[in-house]
Amino acid sequence: MKVKNKKAFGFGILLLSIGFIILLYYNVPVWKEKVSGWEVVEGGVAVKQYNVTGFFIGKNATYREKMHLKLPSSFRENYISLPFNVSIICPDNSTVVFEVEFLGDIYHPDYYNYTVLINEGGLEIEEGILGGIATQTGNYTFHLDKMADLLYGKLDKDPPKSLILYKEIRSKYIDYPYRIFWPVGSALMFIGIGFSTWAIVTKRKILTRKR
Questions:
Q1: What span, in angstroms and rounded, lies between the C-alpha atoms of 61 and 58?
Q2: If we measure between CA atoms, which residue out of 139, 114, 134 comes closest to residue 124?
Q3: Cα–Cα dist 191/185, whole Å
Q4: Among 72, 102, 114, 179, which residue's CB has the most CB atoms within a 10 Å radius?
Q5: Terminal C-alpha separation, the chain
Q6: 183-186 long-range Cβ contacts below 8 angstroms, 24+ apart
Q7: pLDDT per position as a tens digit, 37-84
Q8: CB-based burial of residue 46 (10 Å sphere; 0-12 exposed, 13-18 middle, 19+ buried)?
Q9: Which helix (H) or strand (E) holds 200?
């Protein structure tokens, strides 16, 4: 095979190579994560009570549910900010215990500090939330001890005005973001083949001068 037009042939091979590389990787899968944002759990609102319960699904390789108990905003005159415990009863009856301390003021009425005291394995703890990631499927029950009354009112008389249990869902899925380049890769390959073929069959005209 004799190439008649080397420049056109080289350009065609270049386009063909680029198109081939695009088609080679257009179907490569990419793992992505979808986050639902915080939503109130069904039945996860308790008024003037010390406990609240919500149903959660245990995590697996591609799915996880994170829970967080939102305590009421608290700032009143003559309040007593003593630490109190929040116990979480997991589906297998194991227990997770947090020590909660109110560190806020009139400008930050919902600023709490959470310290894990006990974790028997029912939760995967995440910093900064009163809860964590469910490792089991079933009901999780949050229970405040009555020392919390000293923050919200009088002991044995003033349970929290509301407890709200939130859920955030994180799921992983496979996406194919490079498939949109398939038409481009195909077009480049066809154009490259066309250029290369044309370069082979086209004869260069040789101009001769008359003497």
A1: 10
A2: 134
A3: 10
A4: 102
A5: 34
A6: 184/19, 184/22, 185/18, 185/19, 185/20, 185/21, 185/22, 185/23, 185/26, 186/19, 186/23
A7: 889 998 889 888 889 999 999 988 889 999 999 988 765 555 667 788
A8: buried
A9: helix 182-201
> Does the pTM exceed 0.85?
no
So what's the architecture of 31-174 in CATH?
Sandwich (2.60)
- The span from the CA of 188 to the CA of 205, in Å, is 28
Per-residue pLDDT tens digits for 151-189? 776 666 677 888 999 999 998 878 877 777 777 767 777
Q: Domain residues of the chain, as ranges?
A: 6-28+176-201, 31-174
Q: Which residues contact 31 (CB under 8 A, 6 or more apart)?
A: 172, 173, 174, 175
Rounded Cα–Cα distance for residues 180 and 46 (Å)? 49
Per the structure block, which two tokens stand in for 92? 């297998």
**Distance separating alpha carbons of residues 57 and 41, to the nearest angstrom:** 12
Unique residue bearing structure tokens 């609102």? 45
What is the DSSP track for 105-125?
BTTBTT-EEEEEEEE-SSEEE
Q: Which amino acid is at 20?
A: F
Residue whose tokens read 């082979």: 200
Nearest residue to 22 (alpha-carbon basis) of 191, 196, 178, 192? 178
Residues across the chain:
211
3-state SS class at 128: coil
